[in-house]
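An instance noted here:
***
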Amino acid sequence: SPRPEAPGLSIGTFPEAMQQQIQQEYRRKYPESKRPSFNESAEKTYRTPSGYDMRLDHFRHFFDAIRTEGRVVEDAVFGARAAAPALLCNTSYREERVCGWDPVQIQERT
C-alpha cells in the first residue's frame, strides 16, 4: 500500500506545552489532506509456508556453507552479539548481580 505523505507523530513523552507546539508545526507542514490514514484493510500479514521449519532451514544453510566452504548468513560476531545479552541476563538473574557487556570489545577481538 502507498505510504502517506505525512510521517505521523509520536510525542507522548514530551511536556504538554512542547506537544502543542509540535502539533501546530505538524499541522502547518502537513495539512489534513496529507496526514496518514490507517486503513486496517491495507494491513498485510506474513505467514510461513505450510511445513516450514526455521530450525531446519538454519541448519541447511549452515551445513551447505561448511560443505561448499561458502559463507554463512551471519558470522560469529553477529552470533556473539545476539546471544551474549540473553546469556548475561541469565547470569545476572542467577547470581543476583549486574553484568556488563561491551559489544565493541567483542568486535575488536575477532
Q: What stands out?
A: The first helix runs from residue 16 to 29. The chain has a mean pLDDT of 81. The CA atoms of residues 36 and 83 lie 38 Å apart.
